[in-house]
Structure formats: C-alpha cells, structure tokens
Amino acid sequence: MRATFAEIYINNFVHNLSEIKRFMKSGVKMCVAVKADGYGHGAVEMATAAQNFGAEYLAVATVEEGIELRKAGIKTGIVVLSLCNPCEAPYLFEYNLEPFAGDEDYIDMLQKSGGQISNKLKVHLAVDTGMGRIGCRPENAATLAKKICASAALTLGGMSTHFASADGTDAKSRSYARLQFERFTKAVESVKSAGIDPGIRHCSASAALIDMKEWQLDMVRPGIIAYGYYPDQITRAYLEQKETPMDLKPVMALVTGVSAIRPFEQGESVSYGMTWTSEGETDIAVLPIGYADGFLRRFNRNEVTINGKLYPIRGRICMDQCMVDIGKNNPDVKRWDKVVIFGPEESGALCDAEAFAQSAGTISYEVLTSITKRVARKYIR
C-alpha cells in the first residue's frame, strides 16, 4: 500500500450513530447521509454500517450513488437529494430510489420515465422554505401533492425542506430557521387539508436534529455528525453549556509517511514560489501527500503529527508532496515514520479535520470530502 491512505474507524461511526439515536425522539426514523462517497469515508462501507445499526433510510445526492448502494446489497430506503436528468430517471424506478421533486415539469418527467413499470415510485415533495435551491413554494405544496397522487406512476412518500441557518446560534440565524420551520409546517398542513397523507415529514439535518428536538417530525437526516464533527456554531462547547452534551468521535484519519529527510542551511528555501526560507539550520521531512490527494494548498499553515509531536508545514503544498520542519538532527523522526495529518485520538493524531478547516477558512465537510480516490481507504473495526 502507498504510504498515504485514510484509516476509517467503523466503531467511531457506530458510536456517533448511537449518540445521534440518544438525541432522537421515540418513533423518529433515521436517514444517514452517505452522499459524496460517504463524506469521503466510502459510501458502501458507511451505508452498510448504518443499515446494520438500524437506520431506516440513507441519503445520496445522485442516482449513480444510489445505484452503487443497491448493487452492493443495501436494502434500506434511499432518498436522492438532488435533481436528476431525464436519462437518469428510469433508474429511480429500477433501483427503488426515492427522489425529491418540487415543480410540475419535474414531476411530469418522473411520471413519463416510469414507462410500463407497475410499481409506483415514492416521491418526496421538496418545499423551498428559504434555502433557495430546489422545491416548491409552500403555498403550492398542496397542488403538487395532488399532482403526484394523481399519477399512475408516482406516490407521495414524504415531504421535506432544508434549513439554511440551523447551524447558527445568533438571533438572526435562529429567527430565520424558525420561520422556515413555520413555513414547512403550513405546507404540510395544506396537504393534509387537501385530504392527502404527506408521508414521512423530514426537515432536520445535523444541526436542527441536536439543537431543535421539537422539529424532528417523522425522520431526521444526520450528516456531518455521523462522521464525528459538529455543524458550524453548534459545537461541543455550546452543547455542554446547554447541558445537552454530545460526544462525537472523528471517523477518518488521514495518514502518510516520511519519504525523505533533507538538511537545510540558513537562507535556503523550499517548494514553489520560495514562500518559506530557513532562519537557521534545520531538517525538512518530505511527505508523499499533496493537493491531488485532497491535502489542499491552503492547508499550509497547519501542523502534522509524527510520533506524538506536532511539526509545521513549510512552503507551498505541491500536487503530490509537502514538506514539514522537524528541527535539526531530531531523534524522534526517522525516514519511513508514520505521519498523521488529522484524525481521532486513537490514530495518534493531535489535531482533527476541524483544525485544518478553521485554518483554511472552510468547514470540516469540505476537508473530508476533498480526500480523493487515489487515497486508499483502510477500514478498522
């Protein structure tokens, strides 16, 4: 195996699902997001673990992602969060995938794609309550629900919306999230008033699930918290302060090794653009990981862990390599030693993906999903 790989701790994933279950109200279904290749962890493996845990649904972004899970033997319900194009739609029927829909043209396209298939396709009516991506306006929900129910090929499997600011703790974010929930509730009530069963009502992803328990409705859709990270301002400290602690464990460790150690004199520089110059004698360890692995150039302000100590990245991160300063004649670092970029404590890491995200002005979601396919995943159970 190449020196650069990702360790995926399945037990940590299951631990996180257990923590999520502890926050859920009785009778509420769990829909674990495994889109984007399981947030970079491996969709099939994460889906299998979630199914074995008892999750009733899984969420993917594309038809192709759903097909991958079905071919791997996944039997749970699978919702497709993003819109597909007409050539993909027949596979929704073939592989029993449940799409979101929120406008007449799209519903017509789904109906036509059913062809001669006798089984009705469950459709989740997406309601745009303020996210602005997909879905109908709340006042149009009943009309579209009637259209779905009138179709010979479709049935209404559920109703959904997505919050734009549930992961914020400031007054503006809270007020907007509350407004969205109120709009969604009115849309659901309008469908009920039309004599239609709205199916599974779901609107709470990670943030609302853990911080607004009364909004859980029939199903919740945990994403980032399943993989061990908190959603934006809904942090560990915030939850502890509220006396509703949630213990999450990172699931992925990004690992590489020391491929070379090079002596540097004062005044010598390393990597493109000569952005770093040695202020004195030191040694630079070369690591075979770069932005083509998802270790992005903007991570160059971070430190990595080697044998229980942190060492700073020096110079620009390259496509396939990066360099760290280990100090002169350091007996604690040798060629071929293991290097942990980020991960849970049991991996030996002294920082997690959130630390890299904060230094780069991004979020843990992007750090995890940026890890590319050429980084092999090693599953630890």
Features of the shown structure:
single chain, 381 residues, alpha/beta, nine-stranded mixed sheet, eight-stranded parallel beta barrel, 30% helix, elongated
% residues in beta strands: 15-25%
State the end-to-end CA separation.
19 Å
- Low-confidence regions: none
Strands of the widest sheet, in order across it, are 11-14-17-16-15-18-10-1-19
Could you explain the architecture of this structure?
By secondary structure, the chain is an alpha/beta fold. Helix content is about 30%, strand content about 25%. The protein has 12 helices and 19 strands. It has helices at about 10-25, 35-40, 45-55, 65-70, 90-95, 105-115, 140-150, 170-195, 205-210, 235-240, 355-360, 365-370, and strands at about 5-10, 30-35, 55-60, 75-80, 100, 120-125, 155-160, 200-205, 220, 250-255, 260-265, 270, 275, 280-285, 305, 310-315, 320-325, 340, 375-380. Strands 11-14-17-16-15-18-10-1-19 form a 9-stranded mixed beta sheet. β8 (about 200-205), α9 (about 205-210) and β9 (about 220) form a beta-alpha-beta unit. The longest helix has 23 residues, at about 170-195. The mean pLDDT is about 95.
What is the compact description of this entry?
With 381 residues, the protein is an alpha/beta fold. The protein has twelve helices and 19 strands.
Q: How are the SSEs placed, and which strands pair?
A:
Elements: E1 5-9, H1 10-23, E2 29-33, H2 35-39, H3 43-53, E3 57-60, H4 63-71, E4 77-80, H5 89-94, E5 98-101, H6 104-113, E6 121-126, H7 141-150, E7 154-160, H8 171-193, E8 200-204, H9 206-211, E9 219-220, H10 236-241, E10 252-257, E11 260-264, E12 269-270, E13 276-277, E14 282-287, E15 303-306, E16 309-314, E17 322-325, E18 338-342, H11 353-359, H12 364-369, E19 376-380
Parallel strand pairs: 1-19, 2-3, 2-9, 3-4, 4-5, 5-6, 6-7, 7-8, 8-9
Antiparallel strand pairs: 1-10, 10-18, 11-14, 12-13, 14-17, 15-16, 15-18, 16-17
